[in-house]
Structures are given as structure tokens and as C-alpha cells.
Amino acid sequence: MRPNTMKALEKSEPREGLWMVQAPVPEIGPDEVLIRIRTTGICGTDIHIWNWDDWASHTVPCPMITGHEFAGEIVELGKDVAGLAIGQRCSGEGHLIGTDSRQSRAGKFHLDPGTRGIGVNEQGAFAQYLKLPAFNVIPLPDDIPDDIGAILDPLGNAVHTALSFDLLGEDVLITGAGPIGIMAAAVARHAGARNVVITDINPDRLALAGHVVPSLRTVNPAQEDLQDVIRDLGLKQGFDVGLEMSGSQIALDQMVEAMVMGGRIALLGIPPGKSPVDWSRIVFKAITIKGVYGREMFETWYKMIAMLQNGLDVSRVITHRFDADDFARGFAAMKSGQSGKVVLNWS
Ligand code: ZN
């Protein structure tokens, strides 16, 4: 029995805050499915939308149901959908892509320039029901619980960034111990890195990093010099691979300084504005830099589910769980800077 309306967490007015409203249950097209949402994750993007900062007010139309990190169950299939079934547990890729661009036609869907995001440009997942193209659905195996299903989107950012370069036997530096940085550290460990060092100036985040990935070396660069860490670890020159997850100019400078000649850096952190970079240092160190966006469709999803099934454990990065009606407490936990991932339960 399909209800006509549903609870949804919406940006209803162009100002700070989000509101729980009654919204129509979406009608699906022939290539889409309707998903009953069970669990969602709150992302930094949702905090920007809550705060209605410069980026959000210029990007997000109003009204908009927010949210893009979810796990749920398929309850309706469009008439042309094949290969999926009612009752299938799933997560999904929240980037909706076109099929005409050169990149899409080459199978590089995550590089399609016309990408639109659910919860940003299209109605999102913080609701009892979500409409999604069948193409974007990721079926969840039975051994992946809803909590983890709800954070596959940010885990995918971590996996995409961490697997940008071969990590087997390498020494890896990660700057920024937010949930994605911490999950990237878990992935680097899992992928066979020798030393994994993570930096942050927030001691709570470093403590959480050590709790999620016990074999990690955590460093507060305000108290400890990375050059001393390099010496302690017995590294001859520095780190082979850097994963920049903070968006901090200071962190990037410290990373470049701590890399080996010919080192490789993947950038996921977004600096707040234009920031000066010492390019000559990067040239003379022959450093490769790669910008990372989203998740590869669907190679990143394949790899991350495979790794979760062969022992990758990021479950402790989830520090708070609330009922959806208690969303304000979830957002407060996120804004406190003392949380890992915060998930909301919709069932
Ligand atoms: Zn997200």
C-alpha cells in the first residue's frame, strides 16, 4: 500500500535550519525505483545546507529534501527496470549522471560534467521514501548491515582517494582525521600500506582515529613535527603517498614537505577559497597531484563492498545514532566537532 505523503527533512526556507515536513511520496518513472529509507548518514554537505552558507545558498534550490547517504529497501519498480526486485536491500550512488558526454560514453560515469546530486540539486534521501534511477542502485549483500549501507557514500570517497595510487608496502600520510580521513586510513591499512600516519589539530578526532584503526600513528602537528615522526618511523626520506582530506593549506604544505622525491598526492579536501600553493616545491620534488571527485561508478562501489566482505572494518566510525525525529540532536553532534559519522533511523 503506497501512502500519499511521507516525512521528509527539508530546506523549506532560505535561512539556517532544516524542517521535518510532510511531502508527497515521489512518483517513479519507467527506469526508476522507489526505495523505503531505513537509515541515513549526515554529511558535511548537509551541515553546509543547514547553515545556509555561501555555497549552499548559491547551489541548492528551495524547497529541497536534503540527504544523500542512505540504506533502504526497494518497494516499487519502474516498468522498464530489470535485474532488481521488490524487497531488495540497497544503498545507491547519489550522483545522477547523463549519458551523452564523452566521459559517460567512455564508461567514466563519475566524470560526467552534467552530474546532479540528490539532496543538493534533486530531492534527497532524508525522507521515508526516495526515488532513484535503477542504474544508481547498489544492492546490499546480507552481511553488510544498514548502518554501514548508510555510510557507503563517504566510505566510497575514502576508498576512491586511498586507491588512487598503489599502497602495497608504501608509507602513507593522511592529513585530516574527519570520518573520511579515518576511513581512508582503515582502507590504506587494509590495502597493505607499511606505515599509515594521520594528522589533525583536533585531539578528539585523533582519538577517534586511533579507536577506529588501532594500528594507526596519530599526530597533532601543533605539538609534534612531522620530520620527527619520519625519523621515529625510520623512513629514509618521507612518505610515498599523501591523502589530503582536510582542505587546509597548512596541512597541504606540511604534506608536500614530508613527501619523498616523486611522491604522489591525492586531494579530496576542499580549501575554503583560493589558497596559495608553493608550486616550485612541488615541481622540484617531482610530485604527482590528483584531484578526486565522488566515487568511480561503479568500480569504487565494487571494491568497497569486496573489502567490507574480506575484513575491512569501519563500524566504529559511527559514533551517534538517533531517530529521524531527533535530527536536531544529530546535527548538533556533527557541529560539535566531537563526532564521527552520525546516522538517523527512519524505520
Ligand atoms: Zn556525503
Strand-helix topology:
Layout: E1 5-11, E2 19-24, E3 32-42, H1 44-51, H2 54-59, E4 64-65, E5 69-77, E6 89-92, E7 95-96, H3 102-105, E8 116-117, E9 129-133, E10 137-139, H4 146-149, H5 152-162, E11 171-175, H6 179-190, E12 195-199, H7 203-212, E13 217-219, H8 226-232, E14 239-244, H9 249-258, E15 259-267, H10 279-284, E16 288-291, H11 299-309, E17 318-323, H12 327-335, E18 341-345
Parallel strand pairs: 11-12, 11-14, 12-13, 14-15, 15-16, 17-18
Antiparallel strand pairs: 1-2, 1-4, 3-5, 3-9, 3-18, 5-6, 6-10, 7-8
The protein binds zinc ion.
Give an overview in words:
The protein is of the alpha/beta class. It has helices at residues 44-51, 54-59, 102-105, 146-149, 152-162, 179-190, 203-212, 226-232, 249-258, 279-284, 299-309, 327-335, and strands at 5-11, 19-24, 32-42, 64-65, 69-77, 89-92, 95-96, 116-117, 129-133, 137-139, 171-175, 195-199, 217-219, 239-244, 259-267, 288-291, 318-323, 341-345. The chain has two domains: 5-151 and 314-345, Medium-chain alcohol dehydrogenases, catalytic domain (Quinone Oxidoreductase, Chain A, domain 1, Alpha-Beta Complex); 157-291, NAD(P)-binding Rossmann-like Domain (Rossmann fold), CATH 3.40.50. The protein is built from twelve helices and 18 strands. Helix 5 (152-162) crosses helix 6, helix 5 (152-162) crosses helix 11 (299-309) and helix 6 (179-190) runs parallel beside helix 7. The longest helix is centred in the middle third of the chain and has 12 residues, at 179-190. The protein is globular and about 65 Å long. The model has no long low-confidence stretch (mean pLDDT 97). Zinc ion (ZN) binds at residues 43, 45, 68-69, 153-154.
